[in-house]
Each structure stands twice: as structure tokens, then as C-alpha cells.
Amino acid sequence: MDVILLERVDKLGQMGDTVKVKPGYARNYLLPQKKALRATKANQAHFEGMRAELEARNLERRQEAEQVAERMQGLELVMIRAAGESGQLYGSVAARDVAEALKDAGIKVERRSVNLTHQIKATGAYTVPIVLHPEVSVDVRIGIGRSDEEARAHLEGRSLSAEAREADEALAAEQAAMLVDEEEDGEAEFGAGDYEADDYEADDREV
Question: What positions belong to coiled-coil segments (predicted)?
Fold first, then answer.
């Protein structure tokens, strides 16, 4: 399918370009997100008539994004997560978690702006690109650990002291035990519900 781009789209083209894309990509993303129009003579004329307005609006959005990117330069986020001794997370860190952490840091971005290609499943330091505008992006470093100290140690590229490591391992064991208890409680509640029903014959988860 041929479409006219209404803004720059990464790896596709610039505003005003007519490009060929897969029909599903156009119907499910480009058209509903108002990033493109079907390439017809009528739409081409419509685009040319509104081109100056689109360019002015794009410039305004880009300048706003550049201001936010400037605030985010050098930003590092600390995320504390339950994990085993090997560093494997009990769960994962997804784009929505990064967006929430940015919000807590005073920067509001949409989840789709977080360019996390796959969920993070281990402690460590990660660099995640944040796309604020088709022409503006900024990298954010994220330290993930079982404690604040461990997360910051990952960001700084240093090892924890023996005492801190032992404390984190103890915390991991405690968190794992709590998860097991919660699962057992859930199973118990589910079983209780089944028993009561029998008496009447009729318990989610960059780079």
C-alpha cells in the first residue's frame, strides 16, 4: 500500500514522502496514529494544502521535545526489584515500568516512547532510548537491583561489599519466601471457595 507520510517515520521516510508499506502496518499503525494518509490524488492535494501548518506544528513539537531531552541528559533511574542470587528477576521490567519511573522523576512520557525492544529480566545497568519526537531521542540509564545500593553499584560499574552482598542475598531469600507464602495463601483461598460451593451442591507481568 502507498501512503503519504505526515511526519518523519524512522527507517521509512520524511514528511511528504510517498512510500510503500505493508497494508497491515498502514491500517494498524500509520493511519490510526495520523502519521500517514493513503496515497491518492485527493489526499496528495489535501496534504499540500496543509503542509505549511504541519511543518509549523512539527517544529513546535520538536522544540518542546528538545527541551525535555535537555532535562533528561545524564538522567539515571534506580529500580528496586525482587531477584534471586543469580540476578534473575522475579518478574520483569517493561516499557510501562520505565515510563512510570520517569514519571516519578518528574518527566512524563508515553509508554510507546520507551524504545525497549524486550523486557528486562535480570539485575544490572541498562541504556534505554526514549523517543520524544520522530527527530528527538535521548538515552536514559537504568540501574536495577535488589536494593538501592546494588542498583547504584550497577550504574557505577562497581561491585558490592561483602556485607552489602550478604544483606541483598538475605533480602532475596525473604522476598522469595513471601512469594511462596502468597501463592500458598491463594491456593488455600481457592480451595475454600470450592468447598463452600460443594456444601450448597449447586482465586503481570531496553536495549
Answer: none
